[in-house]
Here is the input.
Amino acid sequence: MKQFIMEHTYEVKAGDYVVAGEASSSIKGLLKKLGISGDIVRRMAIAAYEAEMNLVIHSEGGHLILKISPAELLLISQDEGPGIPDIDLAMEEGYSTAPDEAREMGFGAGMGLANIKRCADEFNIKSSVGIGTKVEVKIYI
Amino acid sequence: MAEYYHSVTLDKDKCRGCTNCIKRCPTEAIRVREGKARIIAERCIDCGECIRVCPYHAKIAVTDPLSSIDRFQYKIALPAPALYGQFKDVTDINDILYALKGLGFDYVYEVARGADYTTAFVKEKLKEGHIKRPLISSACPAIVRLIQVRFPELLANIVSVESPMEIAAQLARREFSEKRGVSEEDIGVFFITPCAAKMTSIKSPIGRERSSVDGAISMLDIYGALSSKIGDTPNTGELQKASAYGVGWANSSGESSALSIERYLAVDGIQNVIYVLEEIENNKFPDLDFFEGLACTGGCVGGPLTFENGFVAKNRIRTLAKDLENHQITGEELSSVRHSIEWEFTESVQPKPVMKLDDDLSLAVKKMETMDKIYESLPGLDCGSCGSPNCRTLAEDIVQGEASELDCIFKLREKVKDLAKEMIELAEKIPTGRHEEDDGK
Here is the structure.
């Protein structure tokens, strides 16, 4: 099995636009420092940013967890609700449930999950209404 | 060693070891060690920020002295358009160009004319569908080097068209040699530069093996001499040929305006450029065709080797350009130079991943973990007294064996305090005289 040699957890608060983007920016900085190649850093940075914004806009708070093995990067986004009733619909480009507050700030175009999937080599999403959503993004090194 | 030539250097005697330059360096390329600043050659991009902020003028740009033109039988000056903004009361650019002849140059070719050609070539590139968007301007060598060091993923976006200076140098040399019937080898071509980065790009060019320019003379160095020649040298009105667009390159967004496109972004000031490059890397500008990033505030008019206040110069350039024609290079003009000069990069721009912790991922991870631990133990004041720009960089320097934890004055204070405490404790254990007396009995 793949051995993770590093793990970092970032807390993301719901509705906090002041620090929104800092976790994904740290992830990008960390990967660059580790010498991960540019294209991979870029894809992970985009996926992490979209996941982070999803946590800020849609969730009741959660975590981004980055795991690194010599073969792959794994990003897990785990929140504490509210969960997605229809995942297929949520994955559709342009579909969004973002509140007006987020839309006024230019977010909520309904591209988030689709963008994350586009960046991933393996993509997994599980959600239960009332419990939470878990998104997994794997990018091979 | 040619790879690490830098125009920006330190005058050790003037350096007082303060923290101004280490804090402002965009690539964290400066440390203060043993009371003096030290530039890490691999990281320095010659942007000149440190020259600007050093209160003791200890950071200098090495350029060629005016006397160096005498190495050649024939001398050509290539004034950067920013030069036009340096002089009060000049209403005709020709006055400045002829004044350069007064300094000993045989011919003057405007880099702004080179800019007209660069614009035309970049326009063609913009029409090619397969090139990564946004195209990133290659005009500012400090920004190209910044991308090499900090944004290697964006190297493919850099437009592979030569800078106006390189194009102007080739055209000037050819034109003069044909006109006068002299050998190209006897001609020295000198750029009149507003910045250190251009000097570096002549000595160790990016995108080509050798520069067509023979040297760079700082605007500051010749400012006095040139001022006194203005109006004093016969002006027959023939040297000024660049368009308003070409001259406009001196200012930020000049290049973009010349391209006559809508979806561009022009950003000046290196910290602003970094901020936007981060966002481009994050795909925040999917509809952008062209990005122009200039290291100096206001563009080249804000260069560290200019004399005039950059904002004043910017206005002058605008006024001077207003009186010029807005003509663009025609297809015919372009095809006449296309095959006679090297207008495109002949070498690819390589990444310089000097910011990473280690080539080996698992070692890098280990270093990162140690670094995080050290960082936790540091005060987080980012005071710079240790000689590294901030606590995080000190942690990195310690991990890389370049610094020690006791370089942190707060850590040192703690240690001294602990030692003092230990000394007191030990002192209390020293046998007193009474004991000795007791022993004596």
Notes: The mean pLDDT of chain A is 88.
